[in-house]
Each structure stands twice: as structure tokens, then as C-alpha cells.
Amino acid sequence: MRSQLRLRVGGLAAYQQELKWIALALGIASTIAIVQNWYPLNLFLSLPFCMIWAYHAWLHTERQLKYINLLFIAFYVYGIARYFVIAQGAA
Can you tell me where the transmembrane regions are (predicted)? Predict the structure, then answer.
């Protein structure tokens, strides 16, 4: 019942703290993936990390943070698409 109430009242904004914890876990996992050279896992972990922070920037109207995260989202989408194109060509 409580989760249904949260969804009706504030949408994702009601889960702001939970999303921040998820973003922290994704950021740590992404950093480990980079250090361990687990490509492309770092791209797949970093994309949702940036999407969560872009959402929070929209929520709190932090313009600079929003545009920086949109830029990184574009880089990660490019990297993921490039990975699949190269993997497709190698097969």
C-alpha cells in the first residue's frame, strides 16, 4: 500500500534517496569495471548511473549537472552502439 501511495504522490521523485543509493552502487561498480578493464561492462554500468543523476538534475533544476550528464549519456550510448557494431562485424 505504501509503495502505491508513493507512486501516486511523487512518481520517481518519491524514490529519490533510493535512486541515489542505486547510483552510488552503479558508480562504484563502474569504477571497479574500469580499473579491472572489464570492457564493455563499464559502459553498461555508467549509462544508468548518468541517467539517474540527469534525472536528479532535472528534478532540482541544476542546469550544469543536467547538461554534463546528458553529454556523458551520449558518450555511453555511442560506446555501447559501437561495441555492438564491432561485435556484430567480428562474428
Answer: 21-39, 67-85
pLDDT tens, position by position, 42-75: 999 999 999 998 888 887 888 888 889 899 999 9
| pLDDT for position 56 | 84
Mean pLDDT (whole number) for 83-90: 88
Domain spans of the chain, in order of start: 16-90
User: What does the DSSP 8-state code read for residue 60?
Assistant: T
Please tell me the number of Cα atoms within 13 Å of 40 on its side-chain side.
Answer: 16
From residue 49, alpha-carbon distances to 1, 2, 11, 64, 68 in Å are 28, 26, 19, 17, 13
Q: How many CB atoms lie within 10 A of CB 62?
A: 15
> Between helices 63-90 and 41-59, what is the axis angle to 10°?
160
Read off the amino acid at residue 9.
Answer: V
